[in-house]
Amino acid sequence: MLEQFLTPAYLPFAVAFAVMIGIGLIEAVGLGLGHMDVDGDFGTDAQGSVLDWLGLGGELPILIWLTSLLGCFTMAGIIIQQSAAGLTGAALPWYWACGAAALAGLALNTLAANGLARVMPGFETTVVSTDDLLRLRGTILEGTARRGQPARAKVVDRHGQAHVVLVEPHDDHGALSSGATVLLVRRERALFFGLGDENTLFQAI
């Protein structure tokens, strides 16, 4: 069976299986890559519905979803090739088998991913989206942040994890010195804007 698995007709499924094992090892050693932010601004409800259909609309870690997809693709491909060999005496060309396995694997993975999401109700991720860092305080690590000259700041999220972000002062003519505590009030892409604790907005009226 192993020799058959390495023939050209089965090779795409052998590769998918190897990648699945690799991702599983990454998850097993806990490198923290399992949950990625897939809650981007999609713009339409239709795109969100597609994600829900794929099983990505919930809190299922994306690498677990991908591992499941690769497993379903591999299983579907082997079944297709074994069935073709039993009926015609020869496996299908790899490209025909890949196309059929991709469709079947995607459908199977939808069921598998939704099932996994239901049996993992207690899953809690310590990964936060970028916007979750807003309204948190950080500390300027080095240098002085000015408009157009961001400085690195350390921010601790609600889970106690530290993040290093680039920060500029919210005020056009403001400056945030090394060691200063700042409140992150807005962001533009990867750049945050902060108000220092000494800002007059924080002083009692």
What is the compact description of this entry?
41% of the residues lie in helices and 18% in strands. The chain has helices at 2-5, 11-28, 45-54, 62-88, 94-119, and strands at 137-140, 145-146, 151-156, 162-169, 175-176, 181-188, 191-196.
Strand content: 15-25%
Order of H and E elements: HHHHHEEEEEEE
Shape, per Cα inertia axes: rod-shaped
Please count the helical segments: 5
Distance between the termini: 79 Å
Instruction: Find the count of extended strands (DSSP E, 2+ residues).
Output: 7
Helix content percent band:
40-55%
Largest sheet: 5 strands, mixed, barrel
Rg measurement, Å:
24 Å
* Mean of residue pLDDT values: 78
Class of secondary structure makeup: alpha+beta
User: What low-confidence regions span 5 or more consecutive residues with pLDDT below 50?
Assistant: 31-55, 121-126
Number of structurally distinct domains: 2
Write out the strand line-up for the largest beta sheet, numbering strands in chain order: 1-3-4-7-6
